[in-house]
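Reviewer 2 asked us to include a model.

Predict the structure of this chain.
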Amino acid sequence: SPDISTELHEKLSREGIEPISDLLQIAKADPSNSHQDQLNRIKKEELSVSAAGLEDVFFQFDSWTLTQEGKQSLQRTLGWFEQDTSSNLIIEGHADQRGTQAYNMILAKKRAVAVQDYLSQLGIESSRMAVISYGKDKPFCQDITEVCYQLNRRGHLLVENP
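Predicted model (C-alpha coordinates):
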Protein backbone atom coordinates (compact mmCIF):
# COMPACT_ATOMS: atom_id res chain seq x y z
CA SER A 1 0.00 0.00 0.00
CA PRO A 2 1.22 3.58 -0.67
CA ASP A 3 2.72 5.42 2.27
CA ILE A 4 1.12 8.46 3.90
CA SER A 5 3.50 10.82 2.13
CA THR A 6 2.44 9.58 -1.32
CA GLU A 7 -1.25 9.79 -0.45
CA LEU A 8 -0.80 13.34 0.88
CA HIS A 9 1.06 14.42 -2.27
CA GLU A 10 -1.71 13.00 -4.47
CA LYS A 11 -4.44 14.72 -2.42
CA LEU A 12 -2.63 18.06 -2.55
CA SER A 13 -2.14 17.71 -6.31
CA ARG A 14 -5.86 17.06 -6.81
CA GLU A 15 -6.63 20.23 -4.82
CA GLY A 16 -4.29 22.30 -6.98
CA ILE A 17 -1.63 22.67 -4.31
CA GLU A 18 1.93 21.99 -5.34
CA PRO A 19 3.45 19.62 -2.81
CA ILE A 20 6.91 20.29 -1.49
CA SER A 21 9.50 17.60 -2.06
CA ASP A 22 10.52 15.56 0.96
CA LEU A 23 14.12 16.39 0.08
CA LEU A 24 13.54 20.13 0.40
CA GLN A 25 14.52 21.64 3.70
CA ILE A 26 13.14 24.96 4.82
CA ALA A 27 15.24 27.21 7.01
CA LYS A 28 13.40 29.20 9.62
CA ALA A 29 14.58 32.61 10.72
CA ASP A 30 16.23 32.59 14.09
CA PRO A 31 15.02 35.54 16.14
CA SER A 32 18.45 35.97 17.63
CA ASN A 33 19.66 38.88 19.67
CA SER A 34 21.64 40.21 16.71
CA HIS A 35 18.40 40.60 14.71
CA GLN A 36 16.75 42.39 17.62
CA ASP A 37 19.87 44.53 18.09
CA GLN A 38 19.67 45.54 14.43
CA LEU A 39 15.99 46.50 14.74
CA ASN A 40 16.74 48.51 17.88
CA ARG A 41 19.60 50.30 16.09
CA ILE A 42 17.34 51.19 13.15
CA LYS A 43 14.66 52.56 15.49
CA LYS A 44 17.29 54.60 17.33
CA GLU A 45 18.63 56.01 14.02
CA GLU A 46 15.14 57.01 12.86
CA LEU A 47 14.37 58.68 16.20
CA SER A 48 17.67 60.56 15.97
CA VAL A 49 16.78 61.77 12.46
CA SER A 50 13.41 62.99 13.69
CA ALA A 51 14.90 64.70 16.73
CA ALA A 52 17.58 66.36 14.56
CA GLY A 53 14.96 67.63 12.10
CA LEU A 54 16.75 66.08 9.12
CA GLU A 55 14.74 65.97 5.91
CA ASP A 56 14.75 63.72 2.88
CA VAL A 57 16.12 65.22 -0.33
CA PHE A 58 13.92 64.52 -3.36
CA PHE A 59 15.00 64.14 -6.99
CA GLN A 60 13.39 64.52 -10.39
CA PHE A 61 12.71 61.48 -12.58
CA ASP A 62 15.88 59.84 -13.93
CA SER A 63 18.09 62.48 -12.27
CA TRP A 64 20.65 62.76 -9.52
CA THR A 65 20.96 66.55 -9.75
CA LEU A 66 20.03 68.32 -6.53
CA THR A 67 17.07 70.68 -6.79
CA GLN A 68 17.08 74.10 -5.13
CA GLU A 69 14.74 72.70 -2.46
CA GLY A 70 17.14 69.81 -1.88
CA LYS A 71 20.06 72.19 -1.43
CA GLN A 72 18.09 74.27 1.06
CA SER A 73 17.23 71.13 3.02
CA LEU A 74 20.89 70.14 3.14
CA GLN A 75 21.87 73.63 4.27
CA ARG A 76 19.54 73.13 7.23
CA THR A 77 21.27 69.78 7.87
CA LEU A 78 24.53 71.68 8.23
CA GLY A 79 23.19 73.28 11.40
CA TRP A 80 22.62 69.86 12.94
CA PHE A 81 26.18 68.79 12.06
CA GLU A 82 27.62 71.88 13.71
CA GLN A 83 25.68 71.15 16.92
CA ASP A 84 26.30 67.40 17.06
CA THR A 85 29.99 66.86 16.40
CA SER A 86 30.09 63.24 17.60
CA SER A 87 27.48 61.63 15.32
CA ASN A 88 27.87 60.58 11.72
CA LEU A 89 25.44 60.56 8.83
CA ILE A 90 24.34 57.65 6.66
CA ILE A 91 22.99 58.79 3.30
CA GLU A 92 20.65 56.28 1.69
CA GLY A 93 19.98 56.57 -2.03
CA HIS A 94 16.55 55.45 -3.28
CA ALA A 95 14.77 55.21 -6.63
CA ASP A 96 11.18 54.68 -7.69
CA GLN A 97 9.85 51.32 -8.87
CA ARG A 98 10.33 51.99 -12.59
CA GLY A 99 13.39 50.68 -14.40
CA THR A 100 15.60 47.67 -13.82
CA GLN A 101 17.11 46.76 -10.50
CA ALA A 102 20.66 47.32 -11.79
CA TYR A 103 19.82 50.75 -13.24
CA ASN A 104 18.08 51.87 -10.05
CA MET A 105 20.96 50.74 -7.84
CA ILE A 106 23.34 52.95 -9.82
CA LEU A 107 20.89 55.87 -9.96
CA ALA A 108 20.24 55.67 -6.21
CA LYS A 109 23.97 55.60 -5.49
CA LYS A 110 24.50 58.68 -7.65
CA ARG A 111 21.75 60.43 -5.68
CA ALA A 112 23.34 59.55 -2.35
CA VAL A 113 26.76 60.66 -3.60
CA ALA A 114 25.26 63.96 -4.84
CA VAL A 115 23.95 64.59 -1.31
CA GLN A 116 27.33 63.64 0.18
CA ASP A 117 29.22 65.87 -2.27
CA TYR A 118 27.01 68.87 -1.53
CA LEU A 119 27.39 68.40 2.23
CA SER A 120 31.16 68.17 1.70
CA GLN A 121 31.04 71.47 -0.22
CA LEU A 122 29.27 72.97 2.78
CA GLY A 123 32.21 71.92 4.96
CA ILE A 124 31.19 68.58 6.47
CA GLU A 125 34.09 66.14 6.65
CA SER A 126 33.56 63.18 4.30
CA SER A 127 34.79 60.87 7.10
CA ARG A 128 31.53 61.64 8.94
CA MET A 129 29.34 60.42 6.06
CA ALA A 130 28.64 57.02 4.52
CA VAL A 131 26.62 56.22 1.39
CA ILE A 132 24.28 53.26 0.84
CA SER A 133 22.27 52.52 -2.31
CA TYR A 134 18.96 50.69 -2.03
CA GLY A 135 17.73 51.26 -5.57
CA LYS A 136 14.04 50.42 -5.60
CA ASP A 137 14.28 47.86 -2.77
CA LYS A 138 13.01 50.03 0.11
CA PRO A 139 10.19 52.18 -1.25
CA PHE A 140 8.61 54.72 1.06
CA CYS A 141 5.33 54.42 -0.85
CA GLN A 142 3.88 51.41 -2.72
CA ASP A 143 1.19 53.09 -4.85
CA ILE A 144 1.55 53.30 -8.61
CA THR A 145 1.13 57.07 -8.87
CA GLU A 146 3.41 59.94 -9.78
CA VAL A 147 3.14 61.32 -6.24
CA CYS A 148 4.32 58.00 -4.83
CA TYR A 149 7.14 57.75 -7.37
CA GLN A 150 8.29 61.24 -6.33
CA LEU A 151 8.35 60.24 -2.66
CA ASN A 152 10.54 57.23 -3.51
CA ARG A 153 13.13 59.24 -5.49
CA ARG A 154 15.07 60.44 -2.49
CA GLY A 155 18.18 60.71 -0.46
CA HIS A 156 17.31 59.63 3.08
CA LEU A 157 19.49 60.78 5.97
CA LEU A 158 20.12 58.64 9.05
CA VAL A 159 22.04 59.56 12.17
CA GLU A 160 24.68 57.10 13.30
CA ASN A 161 25.57 57.64 16.92
CA PRO A 162 28.99 56.52 18.17
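The helical segments are 4-14, 33-52, 68-83, 101-121, 146-152. The chain has a mean pLDDT of 79. We have added this to the supplementary material.
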